Amino acid sequence: MPRNLLFERHLLPREIILCAVRWYLRHPLSYQVVVDLLAERDFAVDRSSVHRWV
Questions:
Q1: CA angle, corner 17, sides to 12 and 20, nearest 5?
Q2: In this predicted structure, what is the pLDDT of residue 3?
Q3: Which of 1, 17, 34, 54 has its CA 20 to 30 A from that of 48?
Q4: Using CB atoms within 10 A of its CB, is residue 1 exposed (0-12), middle (13-18) or buried (19+)?
Q5: Could you give the C-alpha distances from 40 to 7, 8, 28, 46, 51, in angstroms and in order?
Q6: What is the DSSP letter of 11?
């Protein structure tokens, strides 16, 4: 499956989703901490969204 099709149904840009997944997988962070980091950068995301992305 082409990379662009993987992100076509999401509201946030591909780079933001990949950054959130990278934070979660690389560092021992909880979903809530990732949500808080995104909120500091003006992106409103729910914990369940981060869970689905990962």
A1: 130
A2: 64
A3: 1
A4: exposed
A5: 23, 25, 19, 14, 19
A6: S
Measured in residues, the chain has a length of 54
pLDDT digits (tens, 9 = 90+) for 1-54: 566 666 667 778 889 999 999 999 999 999 999 999 999 999 999 999 999 999
Rg (CA), the chain: 11
pTM over 0.85: no
Distance (Å, whole) CA 18 – CA 4? 13
- The region that residue 13 occupies, defined by phi over 0 for left and psi between -120 and 50 for alpha, beta otherwise, is beta
What is the predicted pLDDT for the residue at 13? 87
Angle subtended at Cα 14 by Cα 18 and Cα 39, rounded to the nearest 5 degrees: 70
